[in-house]
Amino acid sequence: MGIALEVFGDALPVAERYAEFLAGAGVERGLIGPREADRLWERHLINCAVVAEAVPQGANVVDIGSGAGLPGIVLAIVRPDLTITLLEPLLRRTRFLDEAVEMLKLPNVEVRRARAEEVAKEFAVDVATARAVAPLERLAKWALPLLRPGGELLALKGERAAGELDEARPVLERFGVRTAELRQVGRGKVDPPTTLVRVVAGRVERPPRRAKGSRKRSS
User: I need a labelling partner for 79 at 20 to 30 A (CA). Which of 6, 33, 50, 60 fits?
Assistant: First the structure.
């Protein structure tokens, strides 16, 4: 827990409550695999928390396919300066996210039940995050329309990160991205370090509107 304290600081008690919720309700509802309960900290919480190193101060963030809230809720805990929308299409998952946000008292988080492609014209955020959602080639098509020009997609990827980036180059070129690169965060805190694919959006022809704070769908 020494690394957890270093990463979360004064927010560690909140992270501990979230870990308990993941290990309990998260496993019971199928959002976290049973085998993951014993390795939540190193494999999930700290692995996601170190992504904060790559997120600018005061950024508006949308977490695509948020699932159990990884990395969105973790970023909200460790970085209260961020404004975060958890974007998730499945009702059972948005219910879990709503419960987590309420229990953890996270005023900087909104839960939205929708697919990224359904709400593209409502968002123009600074950062889009995603973890274990889809190959980069598909993820880029969903994420880039949500970003303002110069905004960043930060996709948490595993050992195939370089291969996914190469495969996605044609799609990224069609979107006119400024930069597409690999970045590692969390050196000395997680082993191996967390690998991000960082994509910086170019200009869009019709900049989308920023979301006006609508909540999830009820059904």
Answer: 33
Can you state the angle between helices 136-143 and 161-174, rounded to 10 degrees? 40
pTM: predicted TM-score of the whole model, two decimal places: 0.89
Partners of 152 in the beta sheet? 127, 200
Spatial contact of 203 and 176, defined as CB atoms under 8 Å apart: yes
> Quick one: CA torsion of 210, 52, 100, 35, rounded to 10 degrees?
130
How far is it, in rounded angstroms, from Cα 79 to Cα 154?
Answer: 16
- The pLDDT tens digits for 169-201 are 999 999 999 999 999 999 989 989 999 999 999
Contact criterion met (CB below 8 Å) for 74 and 49: yes
Residue type, 48: C
